Amino acid sequence: YILKKGMDHTPGGASEEHVPKSKRLERQVDVNTRVTMLIENTTYMATQYVASGLFERDKIIVAAQLVFAILKQKGELNSAEFDFLIRGPKTYGIDNPLPEWASEPVWASVQALHEIEV
Known about the structure:
Blueprint: H1 2-8, H2 31-51, H3 56-74, H4 79-87, H5 104-113
């Protein structure tokens, strides 16, 4: 259902009868452009469908998971940075010069950032 709806609502195909009038191209596009448009539109439709069944507080989590999956598939996700974000590692043993400004766990996380290759 969702895939068909995504395909039907993507402009640039042989028939644009289901495409909203404001998004119609009134012409067919080349295959590579069409595939890109289909992926984007179907991803959007699937996201909207899933989001309609979620509580508001859960929508951002699903959206983040989808973004991470897309970036990983495209090879645009730095694995070291992503791993740091997910695990939240800490490096203890270095004195905190500003304990009134940054707590010990926060300082340990900042120190762990030094280990990430940029």
